[in-house]
Structure formats: structure tokens, C-alpha cells
Amino acid sequence: MRIAYLDCFAGVSGDMFLGALVDAGVSPEVLHEAVGALNIGASLRIEKADRSGISATKVHVLDGTEVAETAHHHDEHGHHHHHGRHLSSIKKIIRDANLPEEVKEKAVLAFELLGASEAKIHNVPVEKIHFHEVGAVDAIADIVAAVAGIHALRVDQWFCSPLNVGGGMVDCAHGRFPVPAPATADLLRDCPTYSAHVENELVTPTGAALIRMLAPTFGSQPAMRVQQIGYGAGTRNPKDFPNVLRLSIGESAGATHSAVAVLETAIDDLSPQVLAHVTEKALALGALDVMSTAVHMKKNRLGTLITILADDAQVAALEDLLLRETSTLGVRIHHERRSCLDRAHLTVTTAYGEVRMKLGSRGGVVLNAAPEFEDCRAAAERNGVPVKQVMQAAVAAYAGGQAK
């Protein structure tokens, strides 16, 4: 199984994430094309940088011909530009871009997470939130390019260290606040954090949103055979502190057991329409799976048991969703230990086009192989054939060794 580990000993920001991706092997063209597809006049400049003796990659976002004045650049806060946007306009920019659907949806999710935190902090509806900083050109480019790079890596599972948030005070659009900034602090609920080494902001709202969107497993580095290492440079270069984000990518080398949070609630008056809505919202918030089970409840009433599987970082948002969007009076939350097959992808060539195959293996032996349904559906629509025909062709191509 291909896994990645983010070592956030110096925090995380959008530009550091981009630098780590490129330094770990993501083609710069992936990022350039993603930013160009937004049609917002932004571009990237990528260069090597030294941070306390460590060679790293620094990514600058340019607005026109000038480097964008990033309001939440790592450790530096100008807050002087006024290129703010509402969430709806940011989502439209992303969804109108010529990018893979998965990239667009993940980027939108990152901004929805930001919007939800801002709305909570200011106690206003999310649609009225005006992104003073994160709505700027540079932050949109940061998030979309990062998601495009993540998509290109094809990592099966992400892991992340506890996050060093830094310390001191930070200037925000609404005043001077202690680190982490209010929106960042809300985004990092249920994520392991600490403060050490420097009196500067180390985790920015953009960086926190990317971490929440990824929904990684937090902890120390898992057993893995590291194949690629990338260092993404922050803006500052302190003498005794390497201001970099380290990204390690490789193959899992240990038992693939992990913990998963389980949220449950049983309801006897939930309409099918609301159930469908809650399911869609839960998945958009990063739930691993959502299940509905018919149950026989007290007073001989038939009801629905909603079960949501999620990583710890998503628990608070999903708990809030169930309490706000359904008629339940409570949610049960517990953790289960699960065993997973090592996951990998490969592409097969069929008469209807290329189709990705999902492989599940243990001990190097493939136990399950299945075609990606969305690839099959797209190929079926292009060729005017039943989707099952494409699925059968993909399985036959895999069995015949026609894989790339």
C-alpha cells in the first residue's frame, strides 16, 4: 500500500505543502496546469531554497507579474490586500476550472471547511462569510494546486505528525490574536497540536484546511519503506530552526491495522429526503462511509440507524451535522480497530479506453481486483455501451496481463 507521512515539526502552510509535493517528485507542470485552469491571473514560481542548511523547494504564487501578497504566508502576515471573495464565488471558480472532478471536489471541501470555521467564529451564516485572506488569489491557487499534486501522487493512505502551531501573536483582518488564529484553532479541533521552538504562527488557515481535507491518521511515522522525501520551504529562514515541511512517501511495511471512529444515532421520524441529504453532506465532510440500517425501536416503532465511519479529525464536524440536520437528541461515538488490505492502483487498456483497477493485497499476494466504477461509467457513456460491459472488459484485460 502506498502511504505518505507529513512531518509538521515546523507547522504547515499552503506554500510549504506545494514545495514538499514538488520536492518529493510531483511534476511542477501538474501545479502550473492546475493554477492556469483557474483563470484568475495567477501563476507559480518554483525555486530551490535553503532553510537552516536543508535544501528545500519554495513555491511562490504570482498575481499577474508580482508575487501575491499572501495574507497567510507562513510566518508573515501583511493583511493589506483586499482581494476577498465569498465562498460561493470561490466554489464557482473551482468548479468551472478544467480539472479532474476529484480535484475540484476536494478543493471545494477545503474551502467549505474554512468557511464553516469562519462562520462559527463570527456567528454568521457561511454564505455571508467574506474571506478577507483565504479568498485571495494566492490562497485559491495554493489549495487547488496542492489538491492537484495530492491527486497526482496516488497515495492510498495519509499519515501526519502532531502539528506544531508555534506561539506568540498574529495580526489578522479583525485584530491581533494569539497563535493559532481563531479560524485555524477551530479547524484544528480534534487534531493533535503543540507549541514549541518559535514565537510565530506555524500553522496557517490554508495549511489547516489542507490537513483537515486529507483526513490523515495522526501519530508517529508508521512502519514504511520510504522511497521519496520532499522538503517544502516556509517564508522565514531562522538560524536555529528548519522552517520546512517534510513529506515522506513509500510503501507500508507493517500490519495495516488502524483505528476508525464510529458515529451512530437511531431515529424514528427521519424522512428519506433528509436521510439522503445527511448522507451526501457527511461524505462531503470527509466521512469514510455512511450506512443506513432499518431497526425496530422502542414503542414498536420502525426507525433508521445511521452509522458513519470517519477519522478522528472529522468527528466534530460529523457530530455537529447529525445534531443539526436530524431530529436526534444524541450521538454515540466510539472507536473500532480495523484490518485493511494493502491498496494499489494500476491502469488497464480495453476496447473502450483506459480503466483504473483497484487492487487489494496482503503479503504481496493480490486478493481482490476491481475496476474503478467511475472510469467504467465514463467509458460506457463515451462508447454507448452498458457499464457492465466495460467492467467485464477491464477485469478480462487485468486477467490477461494488459496492465500499464
UniProtKB/TrEMBL annotation:
Specify the domain of life of the species encoding this protein.
Bacteria
- A Pfam family cross-referenced in the UniProt record is Ni_insertion
- Asked if the keyword Glycoprotein belongs to this entry, the reply reads no
The alphabetical list of record keywords is: Lyase, Nickel
Listed GO molecular functions?
A: lyase activity; nickel cation binding
Family under the similarity heading = Belongs to the LarC family.
HAMAP family, sorted: LarC
Protein name (database record): Putative nickel insertion protein
Species name: Edaphobacter acidisoli
**Upper classification of the organism:** Bacteria, Pseudomonadati, Acidobacteriota, Terriglobia, Terriglobales
